[in-house]
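Re: the multi-chain job from yesterday

Posting the exact lines I submitted so nobody has to dig through the queue logs.
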Amino acid sequence: MGLLAYGDTGWGDELFFATLMTIAVALAAIFIGFFLAAIFASFKLSKNKILNLIGSFYTTVFRGVPELLVIYLFFFGGSGAVMYVAKIFGYDGYIEVNAFLTGAFSIGIISGAYSTEVFRGAVQSIDKGQFEASEVLGFKKKIYYYKIIIPQMLRLALPNISNVWQITLKDTSLISVTGLVEIMRQSYIAAGYTRDPLFFYSFAAVLYLFLTFLSMKMFNRLEKNYSKGY
Amino acid sequence: MDLDFMLEHLPRLLKATKLTIQLTLSSLFFGIFVGVFFAILRTSGNKILYYISYYYSYILRGTPLLVQIFIIYFGLGQVEWIRESFLWVVLKEPYSCAIIAFTLNTGAYSSEIFRSAFETVNKGIVEAAEGLGLNKLNTFFKIKLPIAIRQSLPAYGNEMILMLKGTSLASTVTLLDLTGVAKHIISTTFRPVEVFIVAGSIYLLMTFIIHNFIKFLEKRYNYN
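And the result, structure tokens for all chains:
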């Protein structure tokens, strides 16, 4: 247990902060994902064929290609892309994209592809009468979407959002290949330093189990809260 | 985008695809046995067996695949008695470690799929089979299993695609599968976009094949 001591003698504090980092990346990723999902789900639901195609292309590619490959694309391609844009604006130097942003964006784009399907399914499962009634009552499209459709949609989507969150949380472990010090990377460092990989990777597994357990409890409470009848 | 560059590296990536396919198929093959085994434990009615199966799938589905593969490849080699036993022949190879990790992982997910499929088999059908004098073994293999397989096809198709994507983690334990080779090419040529397009297309082609294969099976075993 000395290995987990807090402070200079053990790895307790390092692993604690690494766990916070995992949570931070996962949260950033899922919100980037929600943002993308709101856009691409509306593409998929629109009547415009080209937008439909763009939406399907996004979800097909990022759900069909391994997460690790996407991470490598952003890890090696991220700085290049940013420098390319900077060049247009007249900046010629080397820019290194921060590992946190790379990780959050690559996982976020993947998580967004799953969320897109969740949002689309939830909107589609809302009774058509709700749309018709809102129109008949004279609401503008923007208003009835925000006030009537989206609140109902979120309730329906909650169990699936919980699934996407679990996937996203576990996917953050892959960011360790870019050097961002989250649970996996920290365990890797500690395992190499102490030559005790079995202990540290098992402990990492316990940390992930704790996180998934905790989030499951939280989502269950949310679901209970939102499934109250009115 | 450089088409010549992409064509130049295509053969190497295709060659690596062979390992990806091998890993996927063998993990899925062994995973089915693990999955069915734990699904049977789960539906057996025995409390202890139920909890063994429950926690098995809970732990393997609650932790990332990367942790599992690292525990098996880096972790188990540290244990003295494992290194001295016959297990070491298997566990010192990254290839077999990857397959073990993938099998255990997909086994956990498929056990949930099979369990819910078994649970949806209509009780009346089972009672009818017993009523007609079929013994327990025959009822299981001739009645319950075929219906459960049909029920679990759509979800299992998803799991196959997840497993295909999961094999990319083999590259973290030094194996040169499709993702491993893609990473190697990217890090030596610094052309991530081109390599991503080629490797990504190969993965998409494989998911497309799996998707249609499952659709074909679903149509074939549709009993309506």
